[in-house]
Amino acid sequence: MVSEEAIRTTLGVIGNITAVTLFLSTVPTFFRICKKRSVEQYSPVPYLASFFNCGLWVLYGMPFVHPHSLLVVTTNGAGVVIELGYLVIFLMFSDPRKRLRVALVTLVEILLFGGLVLLVLTLVNTTQKRSTIVGSISVAANILMYASPLSVMKLVITTKSVEYMPFLLSMFCFSNGLCWFLYALFPFDPFIAVPNGIGALLGILQLVLYATFYKSTKQMLAERKKKVEMGLVVMEKGNVSP
User: Fold this and answer.
1) Is the dihedral of CA 89, 32, 172, 21 positive or negative?
2) pLDDT by residue (tens digit) across 109-149?
3) Which among 8, 10, 61, 132 is most buried, taking Cβ atoms within 10 Å?
4) Cα gap 205→209, rounded to integer Å
């Protein structure tokens, strides 16, 4: 019979794979940003939320907070590095006003994280209490990470276009939430189960939106391309000497 620990470890390894894939799923988006040298209408909120969230879960998984949680540390440690890279790109290709906002929020997140580490290590003496405090804060941050695409979902509904809501991000948001929800059942860890269960549900909503507006997005992009081509033809004709 398969032991509970073996099931937990297997789900944790799968969770690591889906989480890193989730973090890397927006690489095509950032290639586009670098190519166009502009963040266009892409929102920094998901990456700011993910950066802070991953930092909190790294802290939660440390032996002095919640022992025997190495897989939580590895996946979120990778997330911190990847999300920081995304934020650097955002800072490089944003307009000055947006760049200032992103920089300030990132700085506030780092200061809050440092303050939390200091308080937990100096004022709380047992791992059980540390797990409860850090876990409760991490739950709120994790829900924020999964809910952060809500701003993008609002844009999708308003414009009837999924151009700025990458499909891979939505798909892996769902699969990652589901995987870590199952991981938290062996044994039950409410701090991991609750936010990831909510994350899986939000991922489903995003996929429903994508399916709903995929065809209209293709039509809008085709019309935009046609208008650009027609504009170029008009410009070329105007440049022809009589």
Assistant:
1) negative
2) 999 999 999 999 898 889 889 999 999 998 887 776 666 66
3) 61
4) 6
